[in-house]
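Before a computer can learn anything about folding, someone has to put a protein's shape into writing. The outcome of that step, for a single protein, is printed below:
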Amino acid sequence: MQKILYNTALYILLLIGAVIFALPFLWMLRTALMEPAQVQKVPLIWIPNPIRWSNFGEALTFMDFPRLLRNTLIISGMAILGQVMSCSIVAFGFARLRFPGREFLFMLLLSTMMLPMMVTEIPRFILFRHFGWIDTFYPLIVPAFFGAPFFVFLLRQFFKTIPMSLDEAARIDGCSSFRLYAQIMLPLSKPVLATVVIFSFIWSWNDFWGPLVYLRSAENKTLSLGLQVFQGVYQTDYHYLMAASLVVLLPILVTYVVAQRYFVQGIVMSGMKG
């Protein structure tokens, strides 16, 4: 009986927490389906009447959704490719190769995580302006091919859980370091690679600061910048803004739901061994 009461109370608390966390999403959906006059009407209207599904089509047409989606997919796809390639190679070196100063260099790499991004933003902007990369995708893509400390740490921790006996057997058979990395380590690291892909996708897809700083022309803008078209100086079209925001949010929700098993597995196994 005591166990039943405990489980019941636990489920009630979890249900309350789930409702609290879902409220912002439900509020967005409620606003996205409303007529403009109902959005800020007092007293509040909780259920749209009538339901306007046309808000989604009108919002996406107004913001030129296909062009913004293409730009965002290009940046996100290249960023994911760059992060997976560069971070996995660096993590493999720290986890499986022996060289002087390895631990010191790894700690130096981790220490860069404590450096706020805004501290390096001005030097980065000056560098990219010198290269002539302003109003191009290069400032949002090229840095991904130089790795990220968090992903290197995540991959390195996972690589260290794989038995070293595999390396020794491969070396005896004449396997080079690159073949060891590409044909043995990567196939065994699908959970943590999926985690890197998910994190990288979310960060690049939701990135607002980078496109705001480096992209100028309307042809190069991303979805995060495209949402600004609904915000004016004197008024904001909240019904359109919420409708477009839900569509932009949808790929992230789908990605997480589909890859949730790999995401959790990658996070858990990356912390099994120091």
